[in-house]
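=== RUN LOG ===
request id: a7f3
mode: sequence -> structure
chains: 1
length: 55
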Amino acid sequence: MAEIKKLSAEKALEKIRSSDQETSKDQRRDDKMDALNEEIKRMKAQRTRLDRKRD
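=== RESULT ===
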C-alpha cells in the first residue's frame, strides 16, 4: 500500500496562509495598477482640456 503523508495542523495552516498571502500580494499590486491607470486617464483628460484652451 502507498504511504500516506500527514501534515501537522500547524504546517497545514502555514500552507493555506502562504497561498492567501500570495493572492493578496497580487491583489494589492492589481489595485495599485488600477489606481495608476485611473490617474493616467485623469492626467490625459486634463492635458486635453488645457491644449484646447490654448488654441
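=== NOTES ===
The helical segments are 9-54.
The chain has a mean pLDDT of 86.
=== END ===
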